[in-house]
Amino acid sequence: LHHPGGDLIISEPAEHPIHTRIHRDKPEMHCVAHLHSPHSTLLGVVNKPIVPVFNQAFRFYKGVPTFDDPRLVMTDEHAGVLSDALGDKLACQMRGHGNVIVGETPEIGLMNVYFLEENAKYQIEAEKQGGAVPFPIEVIEEAYKIQRNMKTPVAHLVWKYFERRVMMTG
Predict the structure, then answer these.
(1) For the segment 29-56, what is each residue's pLDDT rounded down to a tens digit?
(2) I want to staple 52 with a disulfide (CB 3.0 to 4.6 A). Which of 32, 57, 124, 129 is the partner?
């Protein structure tokens, strides 16, 4: 894939304050991603909360808050408001702009990015069938604990999957 600005030499992305501020406010999060993923962005555009609708998204059971400001985040002050909106959660919708997703490692960050977008896709598709049926919180919490304690962490499997895809496609 070619990004339209990909040939330009950019020393610093315009929205770098998102990353620097969240890293400063949440030093345990070694991965900060800002994306414009289509399904999770759409849920933000229509002001629908992202809720776990499949088992891999149970990691978001504490909620995905919404940052209700579609402007570019180009100052530390503005990024501070976004970081506050994220709070102790793993993801935050940027309504009309995309989302921010964090993880303790790059592998966990990638997993969170992938599963948030996949969940949003399922959630949107479920709306066509009358809406997703919520899971009891006890089921979500127990499934999340099991997932976190797996011998081979799910994040490692997701990382290896994408690593293989990149190696196969070049």
Answers:
(1) 999 999 999 999 999 999 999 999 999 9
(2) 57
CA distance 71 to 125: 28
SS3 101: strand
Q: How many CB atoms lie within 10 A of CB 145?
A: 10
Strands in 6-71 per DSSP E: 31-35, 66-67
Question: Residues 106, 128: contact at Cβ < 8 Å?
Answer: no
Mean pLDDT over all residues of the chain?
A: 92
- Secondary structure of the chain: what % helix, strand, coil (to 5)? 50, 10, 40
| Percentage above 90 pLDDT, the chain | 85
**102 C-beta neighbours (distance < 10 Å), count:** 24
pLDDT over 60 (residue 2) = no
- Distance, in Å, from the CA atom of 15 to the CA atom of 17, rounded to the nearest integer, reads 5
- Compute CA 37 distance to the chain's CA centroid, rounded to the nearest angstrom: 9
